[in-house]
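Appendix B. Raw example, untouched.
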Amino acid sequence: MTGGLDLALLVGAAVLLVAVAAVRLSTRLGLPSLLVYLFIGMVIGEAGFGIHFDDADLTRTLGFCALIMIIAEGGLTARWSTLRPVLGLSAVLATVGVAVSVAVVGVVVHFVLGLDWRLSLLYGAVLSSTDAAAVFATLRVLRLPPRLVATLEAESGMNDAPVVLLVLLLSVAGGPSHPWWYELLLVGYELAAGTAIGLTVGVVGRWLLRHAALPAAGLYPIAAVALTFLAYAAGAAAHASGFLAVYVAGVVLGNSRLPHRRAILGFADGLAWVAQIGLFVLLGLLVAPDRLGRALVPALVVGFALVLLARPLSVWISALVTRGGRRLAWRSQAFLSWAGLRGAVPIVLATIPLSLDSPGAEGLFDAVFVLVIIFTLLQAGTLAPVARRLGIIAPAEAVEIHVEAAPLERMHADVLQIEIEPGSRLAGVHIDELRLPVGAVVTLVVRDGAGFVPGPDTRLRTGDDLLIVTTAAARDVAERRLRAVSRRGRLARWHGEHGHEQR
């Protein structure tokens, strides 16, 4: 028993280290890292090093766990100020857009490949969800307008909810057992209840993290991540959308003034990377390479129907019925259509009919696997040229500051730590120009490894680390002021008597 565990740990650690090193290689080659992880899984599988793995049910379970972590990280890092204007369009894309995509792909598969309607619509349902891991990893390295990035990230965080339900319904032999209006009401309930549960967990969790006074700083990241998993479990227990609950809870927590916030985000980012690596390697292990050749033609048919018909039509209709979407230029709509990336989510969803022994499930899994590889290479590799061609590359913007906070419970105060990164407009501002509220003061500046107590005329520089002590009552006002100066520089106006900066 011990020998088997030791071998498993050895293989697992080696795969993880190789996968981490492969991130740098894939970046240099311009390849999405998910393809490298899939390849690693295939290499160590039965056709390569001989590791036999064919447990679709276990893959589905572990895949859902990985997706929870990936979606949680996406919610924690999403900025509400950017997300709020695109929430309506993202929600419509995640519901109406999904329905349009399922219908279009289902019709093409039925008439071109000759499959029955249930299996054809199952193809559409499995592939209608954009992938959170692929979207988060790919778009954040491109200089795109925040509105477009936020739209795609919010859509990928929300569209798993209706899609999972559709796939489960269509995976059962004979199709749905209830009338269409019942299923529609069920989807509506899952979305509404998932949102409510996520908000509740996020708000309660925010209060607990700010008032718990945990004995070790390392416990805050663990507690924050545990809260997102609690949101999923609570949603699942209420027969609501656990994935949507995770995303909403993550957004609430990520936009709150939490103690050790940067440590929380760093911890979540690390866990999300581990989840991505484990998920894609596991999916690579599950696939049988000798069957992939037969899946090439169906994958190409479905892929072109998805990219050239279903996705553009779903974006156009969603923009048409959304007030904010109608203001989107055709260039932005074209990019939204091309950037609807598929990755791990469709492959994980394809394990649902596979684990239920649904008719045609094996061919569906193989076709989805091939489609993801081909079209991820095609789309992810061309996003930057397409964005430049469409003229939507965003100009350089002021860097948002990151505030790290540690509570001083006995004194009812907080210690804020800020690093002035390149691009921040805090550089060049004098201490007295910060105009912090009463109860907040810059107590230490660390510059080039040496610390000193600043005076009112001390001029901040790029690379400086600031230590600010503030009373608990003044903390939120101080943070808002620091963020305003970081965006607009010393000219950011300040209404001190109301505690608000002019926006």
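End of appendix B.
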